[in-house]
Structures are given as C-alpha cells and as structure tokens.
Amino acid sequence: MPSPYRALFAAPGTKGFSAAGLLGRMPLSMMGIGVVTMISQVTGRYGLAGALSATIALSAAAVGPQISRLVDRHGQSRVLRPATLVALVAAAGLLCATSFGGPDWVLFVCAAGIGAVPSLGAMVRARWAALYRGTPQLHTAYSFESVVDEVCFIFGPIISIGLSTAWFPEAGPLLAACFLAVGVFWLTSQRATEPEPHPRDPQQRGSAMRSRGLQVLVATFVATGTIFGAVDVVTVAFADERGHKSAASVVLALYAAGSCLAGVVFGLLRFKGAPGRRWLLGICTTAVSMIPLLLVGNLPFLAVALFVAGLSIAPTMITTMSLIEEHVPRAQLTEGMTWVSTGLAVGVAVGSSVAGWVIDAAGARAGYGVPAVSGAVAVAVGFLGYRRLSRPVPGRGGTVEQHSERQERNVA
Q: Using an 8 Å Cβ cutoff, are 150 and 260 in contact?
C-alpha cells in the first residue's frame, strides 16, 4: 500500500473501525441482489423479487437519513445498535416467510423493516473526519473509503449470488445479515474513535437538507444513481441478448474495478483550490463516458467502455464527500453524508425501473440511452447549482473568501 495510505493507519483505532466498516458495508451490495436470487429461486416470481428489492432500497432511502440525524445528536453506539436489531429481525422474518411460504404482504413488511439498516459508510467517514479534519489525510481517507465501497460492490454480489445458487436460496441474505451484525456491533464497541455527539442546537433546527449546497449534491446524485441503476440492468439484458448472460457479472465487475483503480490513484494526489470545480468536472466526465455505450455492439467493447466509464466514479464521490464536509454544519455531518447515499439509492431505483421499461419496448442497446440522458440531467443540475457550492456554510460563519481559503487549506 502506498505510503499516504499507510500513514492513515498510524492513528490508534483506525484499523479496527475500517475493518468493521468493511464488514458492515457488505450487505449494501449483497442484500438486494440476494433477495432477488432467493425469491426467484423459491417462487419463480421475478416481479415479486424485484419489487421486494426496490422496497428495501426505498425504505433505506427514507429511514437512513433519520437514523443518521439521531447519530449526530446522540452518538453512534446509542443509535446504531437498536436500528441494526430492527433490520436483523426484519431480515430474519423475510427469510422465514420465504422458507415457509408466507403471504406477500409479510414479505413486503419485512423488506421495509430491513431499510432500518444504518449507513456504515457515513459512520466510518465521520470517524475519519473527526480524526483528520483540516488535514491532507482526510482526502486520502475519503479516497480509501471509496475504494472500500467499490470492493464491496465487486465481491458482494458474487458472494451473495454464489451462495444462494450453490448452497441454499436463503444463504446470500443470511450471510449479509451476519456481516451487518458483526460490522455494526464491532464498530460501536470502539468508543475511542467515535465522534462526539452534538445535542440539539436551537440555532440549527431541521434537517441537514436545509443546506443549499447539499441540496445540489443530492439532486445531482439522484441523476447519477439513475446512471448506475440503468447500467446494471441494461448490461445484464445486453449480455443476455448475446447469449452470455453470466458474463454480465464480469463486465459489471470491470466497471467497479475502474472506479476502484481511479480511487486509489486519486487518493495519492494533492489538489489546490476549492473542490467545487473538480466535482463539476467529475460530473461532466461521468456523463460523457456514457456516450460510447450507445455505440458498442459486443461484450468485449462494452467491457472496455464500462471500465473507462468507471474511472470517473470514485474521484467524483471522493470530491463530493469533501464538499459535504465543507457545506454541512459539523453537527449534521453524518446526516449530510447519508443524504447523498439516499439520493443515489433513489436514483438506482428509478434507473432500474426506467431501463427495464425501455428494454422491454426497444431492446437492450436502446436501454443505454437511459444513463446517457441521466448524465445530461446530472450535468444540467450541476451547472445550475454550482454557485451554491461557493457560498458559506450555514452555521460555520466567515465570508465567501474566507471559506474558500479554508477549503484550499483542507484539500491542499
């Protein structure tokens, strides 16, 4: 591992909460696809499987920011364990109802309960911010966490699908629940690195979404999430049309691998100036990288195009986290990070649904028009909201010039 990454772990406790965060984040990529695999194997109803997966995603999008708001106010250990217990009980109910042929409404209630799973990525990033705020190490830490995210998305679906198909249908979601339990309870046992809670401040009422800068980031990432959701669905259909459906997992793994590689390299670089311009460049690059997908005619070229497209993902995510740290009051940092994840989750659900409709109507190749249009929307929102990203953060104080200087010191 390059020296800047080794230096991250010089602080006591960093290895422990990073490992716990890795385990606790695996369900993010395992649970949804595991439920789809399980339900389709047991019942043969793909429509039901997809609806349950979407219920989990939308429930997490609705509940996640509220859990993170409570974390900012009361601390990780006091909030994450009860929330995780709710998600684990719901997951157990879903597995049992599936095994014993329970009614559909029970499956949907349990799927909604799984949405109480906390955003472990936001929790770990909040710990890094508490350790390295205002130093170059924070940029490296956010880069490392983006790489961890991609590792989860590369290996999580493979593990979940593999277990459910080779062992028994419930194996994938069961292992995801085990990862969640171990990750959360291990993380919350590490009190020394837990960020200090911020009790309710009368001057900071309401949600972190009152930040105008965060509103821009979340809206843009709804469009970005639509790209991700559409690419996943269309790639599976594209491979299926060419008689190699199983190759879709390899192609999508290359998409994540491109992001992982870019995240590692990006973390080694040092930048001057406010991150807003780099963020806008990343959004534009992500959008442009969708255009070649409209032209591919076979799987090898699709694999290359997606690998190249993945190179812009992690740098954009890393820069987004830096912007959140600058544009959200410190007492609402965890909630702010979770809102971006919520935007992505909503976008993924929208992208999957719209892409499926386009594929049914016009074929897989036409489906790549969905991420292309979504990229254009992300760029439009980014340009329209860019000025908000250069304004002072509510509750932080200072002039615009002072705030920009603080950004330069934190990122440089």
A: yes
